[in-house]
């Protein structure tokens, strides 16, 4: 089943003196449960592409379909709600709220959305990510790797169909990076979620179902 499709996707940044073709005609199909790694040099368009997929930016041309829903022809409010319910984001910075504990951070987006928290699922998720024993801790009482695992649990808390991760281990040492990415991969597989990950880590890239190499806003190589 197709979970994500981009059709003729373009994002051009146009200034007075320049036009940057950050994403330049990307056509991609991703199946449910697939694990995709996006690689490529700095400035090649990886983040812009991920932001387009997640509806954080609107394309100059083309469209993004998630589970057959065109996310580009809904208004901003609808897109925000769609994003909250269907897409989980993990960034390099953890962006945890410092004054509430781990559990509260994880369930916050669900509560803000006015929905019931599935306590059993959250507990299971935290156990898989090995942070359940830290559920009452404030973020600053956790290591970097633990904080990122909390951020991952928060991204997965509403059981989204797609997880978008932009260099999520960029702030971690290699040992922690591997553990975090290993747990992220294990978690998304167990819930059959689709994972799209930007990483420079060769070892992790080798574990993906597909690696897309991006250069100058285009997919220049695809390997399995
Ligand atoms: N808001 C913007 N206005 C103008 N140009 C932009 C804007 N955002 C991104 N760009 C340009 O688009 C190109 C792609 O940027 P992007 O951040 O997507 O690259 P990247 O592959 O993620 O890079 P990195 O690996 O360094 O994070 C770059 O040339 C960048 O300078």
From TrEMBL:
Domain annotation ABC transporter: ranges: 4-224
Recorded GO MF terms: ATP binding; ATP hydrolysis activity; transmembrane transporter activity
Gene Ontology cellular component list: membrane protein complex
Taxonomy, superkingdom: Bacteria
Coiled coil: none
InterPro entries: AAA+_ATPase (IPR003593), ABC_transporter-like_ATP-bd (IPR003439), ABC_transporter-like_CS (IPR017871), MacB-like_ATP-bd (IPR017911), P-loop_NTPase (IPR027417)
Keywords: ATP-binding, Nucleotide-binding, Transport
One Pfam family here: ABC_tran
Family: Belongs to the ABC transporter superfamily.
Protein name per Swiss-Prot or TrEMBL: ABC transporter ATP-binding protein
Organism, as annotated: Vallitalea longa
